[in-house]
């Protein structure tokens, strides 16, 4: 449960990553999971540059790992986390791209159930926020329509 103890969590992530890198190497999929968690934790602390670095490293590993790839649930979580980060940074086009990829994969591979419904609601809200701020209103409107159609 999120109790706002991000600094303590960061210490644990740092120690875990150090051990995993030493024992398993930089391209181990378990390292990707740690990078992802660290990145989202940095985002919650508003340490955006560190958050992006960690999330991009997680994405690099996940995309090159044959067992994961772009449609694996763990990779999709990283897409979603990057979408949240880019939304907070005002990088709306990138936020839409990440959020929509996450949404498409989740709905396509998992179908409709409570977890995908929550993702759809979150993506719909992100698209609504983005539609007022993105520089390309047509893209924002299309993203909003896509999430709205999936939510029906």
What does it look like?
It is built from 7 helices and no strands. The model has no long low-confidence stretch (mean pLDDT 81). The protein is mainly α and 152 residues long. 37% of the residues are buried. It has helices spanning 6-24, 29-44, 48-64, 73-89, 92-110, 114-131, 137-151.
What brief labels describe this structure?
single chain; 152 residues; 7 helices; 80% helix; globular
Helix content: over 70%
Mean pLDDT across the residues is: 81
Rounded Rg: 16 Å
- Between the first and last Cα atoms, what is the distance in angstroms? 30 Å
Number of helical runs? 7
Poorly predicted ranges (pLDDT <50, ≥5 residues)?
none
The share of residues in extended strands comes to under 5%
Please state the structural category.
Answer: mainly alpha
Envelope shape: globular
The tally of strands reads 0
Order of helices and strands: HHHHHHH
- Biggest beta sheet attributes: none
How is this fold's topology laid out?
Blueprint: H1 6-24, H2 29-44, H3 48-64, H4 73-89, H5 92-110, H6 114-131, H7 137-151
Helix pairs in contact: 1-2, 2-3, 2-4, 3-4, 4-5, 5-6, 5-7, 6-7
């Amino acid at each position: 449960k999120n109790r706002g103890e991000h600094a303590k969590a960061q210490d644990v992530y740092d120690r875990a990553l150090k051990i995993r890198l030493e024992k398993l190497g930089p391209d181990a999929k378990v390292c990707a999971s740690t990078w992802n968690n660290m990145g989202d934790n940095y985002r919650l602390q508003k340490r955006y540059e560190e958050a992006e670095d960690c999330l991009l490293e997680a994405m690099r590993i996940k995309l090159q790992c044959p067992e994961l790839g772009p449609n694996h649930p763990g990779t999709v979580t990283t897409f979603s986390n990057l979408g949240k980060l880019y939304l907070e940074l005002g990088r709306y086009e990138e936020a839409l791209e990440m959020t929509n990829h996450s949404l498409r994969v989740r709905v396509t591979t998992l179908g409709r159930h409570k977890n995908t419904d929550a993702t759809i609601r979150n993506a719909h809200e992100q698209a609504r926020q983005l539609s007022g701020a993105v520089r390309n209103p047509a893209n924002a409107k299309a993203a909003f329509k896509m999430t709205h159609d999936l939510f029906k």
